[in-house]
Amino acid sequence: MMRGMGNMQGMMKQMQKMQKEMVKAQDELNAKEFTGSSTNDLVTVTFTGDKTMKTMAINPELIDPEDPEMLQDMIVLAVNDAIKKITTETDQTMGKYTKGLPGM
């Protein structure tokens, strides 16, 4: 009976270690910056890993009062590009912890 308890304690320590590593990895991702851009970099945006926008730069050539839809489209492209980069890196980084776990 004691033999099984030692094994259980070892598993618990291993899980606690993995949990600390996961928190550290998530914190590092949240602090990292991701830049997304539209066609020809006419609009660029920078987000942190927790999907908070920090900056947006719009090339003045893109600002046309007669065509606001173009500017809107370029902003959407840049934002979606940045979020895709965040999602990809998050999946790669955190996937090693959640791979094989039920419900993940």
From TrEMBL:
The keyword DNA-binding applies. SUPFAM superfamilies: YbaB-like (SSF82607). It comes from the Bacteria. Keywords: Cytoplasm, DNA-binding. Residues 1-17 have a biased composition (Low complexity). It is found in: Cytoplasm, Nucleoid. InterPro entries: YbaB-like_sf (IPR036894), YbaB/EbfC (IPR004401). Gene3D superfamilies: Nucleoid-associated protein YbaB-like domain. Its main location: cytoplasm. Residues 1-24 are annotated as: Disordered. The keyword Cytoplasm applies. Belongs to the YbaB/EbfC family. Binds to DNA and alters its conformation. May be involved in regulation of gene expression, nucleoid organization and DNA protection. PANTHER family: NUCLEOID-ASSOCIATED PROTEIN YBAB. Homodimer. This is Nucleoid-associated protein P7H59_02315. It comes from Enterococcus viikkiensis.
